[in-house]
Write a structure and sequence with these properties.
about 290 residues; mainly beta; Neuraminidase; 4-stranded antiparallel beta sheet; 1 helix; about 0% helix; globular
Length: about 290
């Protein structure tokens, strides 16, 4: 169940690289990109808050930091700016992000202290970075159906996941509508991913789990992890049936962390049910 024993203040952004067959993820506040291979643990310092990545080719990632979108060469660690990302707002950082089926990349930003209404969602597509939504507090749950017909996203503070139709280029083409209301259950939607059957898998911050819902928003099942603050899931492994999940120890007391040292670790639930859940390969980002 424990994939990586390093405890992170704010683990986020797991990405299963389909060509490398390798998981990458972030510790946002320390500004580190992390990975794990048979040879051991890997870590790269990005130099500032960083939270999410897409893959450009076998050796290149697109990474979102607090000031820019940049390419990152895995072998040499070379960083090359692609587009500025709120460079003049030092109190904000990136949060949730994921590549879409069209080769675009969605990334959210938020206030470092989670102040209300300071966050936004952006989309980078073929050289253009465009703001999609603003006035958000903790923007999360960015994911896409396999056919590219719609996107999900949320403001965690509202406990409601939105759904929006996409056009032929992957841009939102309608007004977002509420799709999954978790207020009655008191659940906080965090990062999310959609499987090959169109089911929505969402980390629920504070609940220690990733929960699955069908296309109509009906609850299917939940996979529990031994850390309360689950942050983001990703499907990976050779057949995409392993459910990875990052977590965080931020805002927990020393007693909480001493009682459960798994807070902040990165987890893997292998073969969670291949007949029920299988991921799709993360799309390549087109620069």
């Amino acid at each position: 169940m424990i994939f990586d024993t390093r405890t992170l203040e704010l683990g986020e952004g797991p990405l299963w690289h389909p060509e490398r067959q390798q998981l990458f993820w972030f510790d946002i506040r320390s500004g580190h990109l992390l990975s794990q291979t048979e040879a051991g643990s890997l870590s790269w310092s990005i130099g500032e808050n960083a939270s999410a990545a897409g893959w450009v080719d076998r050796d290149t990632l697109l990474i979102a930091t607090e000031t820019r979108l940049m390419t990152f060469d895995i072998a040499s660690s070379q960083q090359t700016e692609i587009a500025p990302l709120e460079p003049d707002t030092p109190n904000t950082r990136p949060n949730d992000g994921r590549a879409d089926p069209f080769g675009g990349f969605w990334i959210s930003t938020m206030d470092k202290m989670a102040s209300a209404g300071k966050g936004a969602f952006y989309r980078y597509y073929k050289g253009e970075l465009r703001k999609l939504y603003d006035g958000l507090s903790v923007p999360n749950a960015c994911c896409f159906d396999p056919e590219g017909g719609f996107a999900h996203f949320c403001d965690t503070t509202t406990k409601t996941v939105m759904r929006v139709t996409l056009d032929a280029q992957g841009w939102p083409s309608a007004t977002p509508e509420p799709w999954l209301d978790l207020r009655a259950d008191g659940l906080k939607p965090d990062g999310a991913v959609i499987d090959a059957d169109g089911n929505f898998w969402c980390a629920q911050y504070g609940a220690g789990r990733v929960a699955a819902y069908d296309r109509a928003g009906k609850f299917l099942r939940a996979v529990a992890f031994p850390a309360s603050q689950t942050t983001c899931p990703a499907f990976g492994g050779p057949d995409l049936t392993t459910l990875f999940c990052t977590s965080a120890w931020q805002n927990l007391t020393d007693d909480d962390r001493a009682t459960n040292p798994d807070h902040g670790r990165t987890f893997a639930a292998p073969d969670i049910a291949p007949d029920i859940a299988r991921g799709v390969p993360e799309p390549r980002v087109i620069l």
